[in-house]
Amino acid sequence: MGDSKLQNFEELRNRGLDVDAALRFTGGEDKYVIGLTRFYNAYEKNSNRIKKSFADKNYEDYTIIMHTLKSNARMIGDNELGNLAEKLQYAGEDREIETIEAETDNFLSMYKNLVDFIKPFTSDDEKELSKDACIKLANELKESLDDYDYDESIILLNKMSKYHFSTSHRVIYNDIRDYVEKFMYDEALEMTEQLVESIS
User: Fold this and answer.
1) Fewer beta carbons below 10 Å: N end or C end of the chain?
2) pTM of the entire predicted model
3) What span, in angstroms and rounded, lies between the C-alpha atoms of 59 and 194?
């Protein structure tokens, strides 16, 4: 993360974020950037969950996600979004359907505007890898394993670690790493082919 991101927190303050409280909560500038990045990364999953629970009238799940976002928004200093999430959390708990129907679209709009705004302050080091990027790296890994290139294989595995593997895929990934570290390239190659096939 560049120093420019740290120096430009004034832009976040100007937007209304309580950066000083967020820095105290997260423990410093570097950790605040990590917090912003994780908040950004979670947007797609969380917004889809809100839309689904709202459409399905699953107010239990709706309440849970609003409870999470209440804390997470306040953690990065957006008390306005956090307060609205709290309002909707309580509306979900009390089944105040009119409030939920009146405010959910507004919440989603505010949420999207926030993540778009904080994107320049996020860190590439913390961003999750897309599935396509992970498959591309895995195919490169197969080539390096064919060449018995230990150093390149470890570099590629480190890059792949940023992918959000399912539990079963994480087991395969760990097996590949173990095989590489033991110089068992054929076994690692076989497991890498299995990984590519299963996540494609």
Assistant:
1) C
2) 0.61
3) 39
In whole angstroms, give the CA distance from residue 110 to residue 166.
Answer: 30
Three-state secondary-structure class, residue 120: helix
Spacing of C-alpha 179 from chain mean position:
29
User: Residue 164 is inside which H or E element, if any?
Assistant: none
Distance (Å, rounded) from C-alpha 41 to C-alpha 160?
17
Count the residues in the chain.
Answer: 200
**Can you read off the two tokens belonging to residue 11?**
């832009």
| CA–CA distance, 134 with 65 (Å, rounded to integer) | 28
First to last CA, the chain: 31
> Whose structure tokens read 């054929």?
186
Report the distance separating Cα 74 and Cα 82, nearest Å: 5
DSSP state letter for 28: S
The predicted-structure confidence for 32-83, as pLDDT tens digits, reads as follows 888 898 899 889 889 999 999 999 999 999 999 999 999 999 999 999 999 9
Cβ count within 10 A of residue 163: 19
